[in-house]
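agent> step 3/5: call structure_predict on target 'Nuclear pore complex protein NUP96 C-terminal domain-containing protein' (Flacourtia indica).
agent> reason: downstream docking stage needs a structural representation; sequence fetched in step 2, passing through unchanged.
tool.input:
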Amino acid sequence: LKENSLEVDHEALPLIRRAEFSCWLQESVCHRVQDEVSSLDESSYLENIFLLLTGRQLDAAVEMAASRGDVRLACLLSQAGGLNCADIAQQLDLWRINGLDFNFIEKERVRLYELLSGNIHGALKDFKIDWKRFLGLLMWYRLPPDMPLPLIFQKYQRLFVNGKAPFPLPIYIDEGPVDADVHFSEKHFDLSYYLMLLHANGEGEFSSLKTMLSAFSSTHDPLDYHMIWHQRAVLEAVGIFTSKDLQVLDMGLVSQLLCIGQCHWA
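tool.output (status=ok):
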C-alpha cells in the first residue's frame, strides 16, 4: 500500500513502516542466521533456537522446540516480543530473590528466558552479534511493539554512544571476506544506518550528511563513487535534502566513468 493511498489510515502509518522495516531486517540477517545454525550440531537445539530468534524466525524456533517435546518453551516462543515479556522478567527476578540455583538449568535455556524477558544484554553475555541483529533484538524483544521507528533508531544510537551496542560496520566489512586486507577507520557507518539516522532526525539538519556520502560508507575503494552518487540522487529526487556543496561526487563519478572507458555515460 502506498502511504498516500486512501486505503491507509494515517494513524497506522508508523506501524506499517515498522512492520515493513522489520521484514527488511529479517531478510537482511537471514543468511547469517542460517549459516550459523547450519554450523551447529543438531543436539544443541536450544542454541539453534536462540540463533533463530536473533533473526526473528519464530515459526522455525517454535517448530524446533515442539519437535523436541519442549512444549512450554514452544508456547513462550510463540508469544516472543509480546506483552508477556514483563511476566517472564518478573519470574526470573523471583527465582533470583528466592535463591534458585541457575546451575540446574541449561545455560542456553536461561539465555532464551533472558531474551524473551527483554534483557538483551543479559541474553548476549559471552555472545557476539552483528549490529543489524542487535537492532532487531532491541526492536523485537525489548521495546514496545508500537514504538515508532525514529524512537527505535534513537534508542540504538544512545546505546551505541554509551558502548552498549555494536558498531554499525559498513556491509563490505561486516559481511566481507575475513581475510580481506581492508584498512578501516571507525568514522564511517553502514549506508543503511545513515539512512536510519536520517529518518530519526526528521526535519532537523542532518550533521552526518557529508560522512554518509563518503565512498567509505559503501566500499573500501576511496575512488569508487557509483553507490553514493546514486544514493545522493535518490535522496534528492524524493526531496530529503538539496546538496549544494557535494559537486565532488559528480566529479568523482565522471572521473571514474572516464577511467573505465564509459565516456558516453560521463
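agent> step 4/5: record observation. The longest helix spans residues 13-38.
agent> proceeding.
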